[in-house]
Amino acid sequence: MGRDVDVLQGTLNLLILKAISMGPLHGYAVLLRIEQMSGERMEILQGTLYPALYKLEAQGLIAGQWGESENNRKAKFYTLTAAGRKQFAAEQKKWADLSEVMGKILGTEGAA
User: Fold this and answer.
1) Can you tell me the distance from the alpha carbon of 60 to that of 49, in angstroms, rounded to the nearest whole number?
2) Distance CA 75, CA 85 (A)
């Protein structure tokens, strides 16, 4: 199965927060975690990921700390802040509510 699912506009931040909620990750590992969680069906481009990480950090939703990656390179590791955990929970609820409503709408049959 190929990478055939596009990231919907406005959902990248939620995906990043989800990945980081599972434990500290450096930028490239965030990208890999999202791809892995999608069953390799979603591709996140580095040129899209890093600006989103910087924005989330500037908003105080994630915090970065320099460390060493698994391949002995200097890397910034991100963790959720208290504000980030709160935002993640709120966004996760909004997404669940939207998914439920869309499921009802798309499952509705009627005369065409």
Assistant:
1) 17
2) 22
User: Both tokens of residue 86?
Assistant: 């709160």
Residue written as tokens 């409503």? 101
Residues forming beta bridges with residue 25, ordered by sequence position: 78
Q: Give 23's DSSP letter.
A: S
Which uninterrupted H or E stretch holds 78?
A: strand 74-80
Q: What are phi and psi of 63, to 5 degrees?
A: -125, 140
Q: For the chain, give every domain's residue range.
A: 12-107
State if pTM tops 0.90.
no
Architecture, CATH, for domain 12-107: Orthogonal Bundle (1.10)
Tell me the one-letter amino acid at 67. G
pLDDT in tens, 39-87: 999 888 899 999 999 999 999 999 999 999 888 899 999 999 999 999 9
